[in-house]
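Structure tokens please, single chain.
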Amino acid sequence: MSFWMKPMSFANLADSNTNPDGYGYILSSGPSGDKGFILKCTRSSMNFIVNDGQTVWDASMPTTRLSRVWTNIALSWSQEQGPRVLINGLEPYTTVNMTSLSTTAAPHSFNKLHLGKRNDANSGYFYAAYDDLAVWYKVLEFSDPNVVKFVYGEDCHEVLITTNHAELDAKSVWTGTIECDNQHASGCSRDLDELYEMTIVDGVLSAAAYEIAIAKLNSYVQPRTYMTLDELEVSSEILNKLLHHTLPNKINDTAAEDDLQTVMDVSSNLLESHRTGKWKSVHQSHPGATMMMKDIEAYAMDVVKRMRDENGRKADLNVTLTSDNLIMNLARFDIADYDPQEQFTFPVYADGRLSSIDTAWNNPQDSITLPKNIFDFTIKNTGKASIVSFLYETIDDVLPEYSEDENLQPDSLKVNSRVLSLLLDPELREDLYNPIEIVLQHSEEKLSGEESLCAFWDFNMPNTISGGWNTSGCDVHRSYKTETICHCYHLTHFTTVKQPKALVIESRHDKILRIITWVGIVLSMLTLILLLAIYVGFRPLRRVHHMIHINLIVAMLLAKLCVIVVLLSVNNKNACKTMAVFLHFFYTASFSWMLVDGIHLLVEIKVTLALWFRERLRYYLLIGWGSSEVRLVGKAIITRKDVEKEIKTKLKRLSMTKEEQLKQIEEERKPPPKPACKYDHGEIVPD
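Here you go.
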């Protein structure tokens, strides 16, 4: 280090209040007895003290009486040479005392260089003017004939006068590394723009630079800090870049939790409710919060896979972290130790770590529960499993309310719950059959003219910047005024959306058809009831042939009754399903009894067959009602296989990229291949 100094007054050196030890501190970078260096003086002597934490060097030199003129002082130190001083280009006679420390000096908080006083106390003042302070990046060799020119500043070919730090840095000599430079830049960044330059433009991030940058970003996005639209967008881009830095193969559990807590704090601060309006503007041209949501979850999963305990083992984990607007759970366990009866559920509100959330979020009830046989449907069912779960408090107001789904109305769509997400490693197969149960508490009560639908954020939705809401693979299991229970067959980001019920305007023709239907059903039922009364009321008609007709009438009458129930409960999904089963059964039974009527006529005509039908009614009942049950069960089995196949196809398409989906559609549209042979005039000939 070198500088010019002009003493202005020495009167205070004798003042016990300002200079109790009688020394004036020309410069000081460390307290007495701690790491750092000190240059102090009296009117006739000077001491240059250096402490490297293990050894203390005290270089004492007599000087001529300091006068009020500009004096050049150069300081240099190395472990080999010790402290050395040049005063006006000459090295004075110096006595150096070395003292080895019994204990290593600990770092201290007084680590800034002060000129004209002690840096750890308001004392030791030295009244002087300073100029041309230079910090040299190498040890000054006093034997070098040009050293005087260097410290005097005479060997400068160009003098740069500027207040632009970037311009000054461009002229300075840099001998560090890229990692060191970025670490320094991130720590010294004065605003988001400078931090953006360091992370986005420079593009090289060491672990140390990442830690400093994420902490710095957190300080810039505090909840009470006003942020412009551009600053919000820049912050999300910086976070995106930081979350893609290269991680070490192994990360200590405690360090990983601290890092993820900081990431959560940054994300939570960016998602504060008063920034909702700005996020809406960001999403018009930038993925924004949707990409941030995806990035922090992928980053958390990457960290979980690398976490190790103090012994370096990949032990089981169950970590819950919270912030103002997020809950995160990290779980890791051996699949062989997983108990299917204890289904994985997130969040577990009985966990004491969520006590503050219960109050702040007004007792949330949202949860996601995996099926018992979840690992029967993963790409592998052995080894370690990792689960990363998130619950977002305010992101429902931040995410765009956009969709290309034909079941949703984009103009009147409203996200009406918190957002739940879960990542699983190993991943689920696309043919998951058992549903994942998701309970979502409504932000607003569902009104009578509204409907709630279960939806997920589809990042691959076409014609969008960052995706949209999709209902494929998610069904409403039950829906109430305050919550909706969803059954979904894949894992992603889930929520409920509400929209006005579609108004069904009945046309004139539909009205006429409805009237005809009701009139026809009523007349048919009245006729059947009258006919049934005749058969039952007249004893001569109670023969086998008439008993067949009575059963046929009952089957047709019950089928008509099922039709009436269906017409009266079109909005009740469960009632419609139940009545559809009974309707199928009774109509099938009607045809069965018609078959029985034909068999009976054949038996009556063929006397020989009558011998085999002595107790004919028992067999007729078995054919008329029993065969209908058999056909109904067979139909249910076939239908289930078709439904399973359709679900698998839909889920497979959901996992495809846009290009893969288009390619599959093109394949399906291709005409079938021509047969190798064709039938022509009774002969099979090659095509």
